[in-house]
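The following block was generated as part of the benchmark described in Methods. Ligand: guanosine-5'-diphosphate.
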Amino acid sequence: MFKKDEYFVLILGLDNAGKTTYLEQTKTKFTKNYKAMNPAKITTTVGLNIGKIDIGPVRLNFWDLGGQEELQSLWDKYYAESHGVIYIIDSSDRERVDESKEAFEKMIQSEVLLGVPLLVLANKQDLKNCMSTSEVKQAFHDSAQKIGKRDCKVLGVSALNGDGVHEGIEWLKQCVE
Ligand code: GDP
């Protein structure tokens, strides 16, 4: 029987970054007749949200993990099974940029994830006064030096209105394939 090529992608980032909204938006964009959750009803991830999409013969399975500090220690339990990582930053939350950067650095320094493609999303670009994608890049500048050899892309997105979602997923798909 025809079998799909299956890959596993982690969605990481601090709580409130927009991980669950991004996963919902991804499912909406890539699944025919998908009934999206009302964004107002989405609550922050505690534990794990899962989702999958099919792009031609490729199946991407997503694990959206809780971002609260006490849940970050669970992230590395999933690293060994992951083919790709999406790291989401709330561009409107300047106060937590350093906290997000810390969690990001810890993640990229994991040996298990070495070489695994990384999509970094500067989310909530629809909000006025949020950091632009280049400001987010600048804030993460020293972390970028530690990324090592792997495919990496930084993209400004809005998980809420869907801007940039398609482009990022297509990029990640061709990296993991
Ligand atoms: P999670 O904790 O990372 O899973 O974050 P959620 O997906 O629960 O989102 C946290 C809050 O941010 C919710 O109120 C979302 O509606 C909001 N949010 C998520 N993405 C965006 C975005 O792109 N733009 C705006 N304006 N709000 C967003």
